[in-house]
Write a structure and sequence with these properties.
mainly alpha, flat, 48% helix, 7 helices
Length: 159
């Protein structure tokens, strides 16, 4: 039974390390020393799969055996009260019904209007349209879903 536990732990460590290496960006393979350091850190913090079917990590199964995880500082009571007051003022709170809407959506006249998002100017839209016409970046008028530059590549400049 002890051999099985050691083999399962080794396999779990290998699986975690392989997953971490695979999930990182493809900036290049890690060196042997980098992997060894990551493995030692995972063993130290208990960030390895437990040897059971729970799917939990070792530090979740036996938290007293590992250093505590770093906890982000919580908001202060004053910060929470300020957020609540702002939500009440703007109506950005759930309505007391089953609609799933916010108070400012149910009764918009009771709350200040939401700030308007800056839009493009008429000149910017015209410039974008002219650029799209010039490059053929406009959908064809048929049901193909293709752009004009794809249907008629000789009529438009190359990318």
């Amino acid at each position: 039974m002890r051999h099985f536990s050691i083999h399962a732990l080794a396999f779990g460590v290998l699986a975690v390390c392989a997953t971490q290496v695979w999930s990182q960006n493809m900036s290049g393979p890690k060196t042997r020393d980098q992997v060894r350091i990551e493995l030692m850190e995972a063993i130290r913090t208990g960030n390895l799969p437990a040897n059971d079917d729970s799917g939990r990590m070792l530090n979740e199964v036996n938290p007293s055996a590992y250093p505590p995880k770093m906890v982000e500082p919580c908001k202060t009571r004053e910060q929470v009260r300020a957020e609540l007051a702002e939500a009440r003022r703007t109506g950005n709170m759930p309505a007391n019904d089953e609609s799933g809407c916010l108070l400012n959506e149910v009764n918009p006249s009771a709350y200040p209007p939401k700030p308007a998002v800056a839009c493009k100017t008429r000149e910017q839209v015209r410039a974008e349209l002219e650029d799209a016409r010039r490059t053929g970046n406009i959908p064809a008028s048929d049901d193909s879903g293709c752009m004009l530059r794809d249907m008629y590549p000789d009529l438009y400049p190359k990318k």
